[in-house]
């Protein structure tokens, strides 16, 4: 069984640009979570999608957005990139809604110059 | 306690020694406590999910206990091996997981 896959592995952008990160959950998982790990900080909850709907978002500005597709894959968009957006972005999936055990992807490393 | 806190931030253990570290969390509105292991260059991997006060879980040489009344969980590693080197994360759950900053364990051969 394939795990959670994320792309790209690394992404370099400049300030003001937009970044798009992608995530494919484990087959059968309907919930997708996005987390950010900035340097020196723990995992911060960004967004939760379930059955194609945004269910909740963390304390991040609106320029962080995303969506979930009918096949349950998801993308995270970050607009108007700022230097402090440089971080590891982890996607995780779970079976059903709520905080069940999460299966994480390997992450996408975003660097903003 | 308002958030999930882990201590110590890091620790070094000699191979063969045992160690333990703490996760503290708000005891009100508790639902579940998760432990994850995150090895360098890999994905975080679930170790345990605990829900009941007094719960104890074990996986090989790693075990965890839970005290929901006072809001803490201990994770124990018995007879540490180099492959135990990782960052250990705990998290509380409602609709999402709220993580602590982790305890990074380095096992020295």
Description:
The complex is a heterodimer of chains A (113) and B (109). Chain A is mostly beta strands and 113 residues long. Helix content of chain A is 0%, strand content 50%. Chain A has no helices and 11 strands. In chain A, the strands form 2 sheets. In chain A, strands 2, 4, 5, 6, 9, 10 and 11 form a 7-stranded mixed β-sheet that branches. Chain A has a 4-stranded antiparallel β-sheet with strand order 1-3-8-7, with no helix packed on it. In chain A, strand 7 and strand 8 (74-78) form a beta hairpin. Chain A is globular, with a radius of gyration of 13 Å. The mean pLDDT of chain A is 94. In chain B, strands 2, 4, 5, 9, 10 and 11 form a 6-stranded mixed β-sheet that branches. Chain B has strands at residues 5-7, 10-14, 19-24, 32-38, 45-50, 56-59, 62-67, 72-77, 86-93, 97-99, 103-108. In chain B, 34% of the residues are buried. Helix content of chain B is 0%, strand content 55%. Chain B is built from no helices and 11 strands. Chain B is mostly beta strands and 109 residues long. The N and C termini of chain B lie far apart (36 Å). Classes of the chains: A mainly beta (113), B mainly beta (109). Chains A and B meet through strand 10 of A and strand 5 and strand 10 of B.
């Amino acid at each position: 069984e394939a795990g959670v896959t994320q792309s790209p592995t690394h992404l370099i952008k400049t300030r003001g640009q937009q970044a798009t990160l992608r995530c494919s959950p484990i087959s059968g998982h309907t919930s997708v979570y996005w987390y950010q790990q900035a340097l020196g900080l723990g995992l911060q909850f960004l967004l939760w999608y379930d059955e194609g709907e945004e269910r909740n978002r963390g304390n991040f500005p609106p320029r962080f957005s995303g969506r979930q597709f009918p096949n349950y894959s998801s993308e995270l968009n970050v607009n108007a990139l700022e230097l402090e957006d440089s971080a590891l972005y982890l996607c995780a999936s779970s079976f059903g809604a709520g905080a069940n055990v999460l299966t994480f992807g390997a992450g996408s490393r975003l660097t903003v110059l | 306690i308002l958030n999930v806190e882990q201590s110590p931030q890091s620790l070094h253990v000699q191979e063969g020694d045992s160690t333990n570290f703490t996760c503290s969390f708000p005891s009100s509105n508790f639902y579940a406590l998760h432990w994850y292991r995150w090895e360098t260059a890999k994905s975080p991997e679930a170790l345990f999910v605990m829900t009941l006060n007094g719960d104890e879980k074990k996986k090989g040489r790693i075990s965890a206990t839970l005290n929901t009344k006072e809001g803490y969980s201990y994770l124990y590693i018995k007879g540490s091996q180099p492959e135990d080197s990782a960052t250990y994360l705990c998290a509380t759950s409602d609709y999402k997981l709220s993580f602590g900053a982790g305890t990074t364990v380095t096992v020295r051969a």
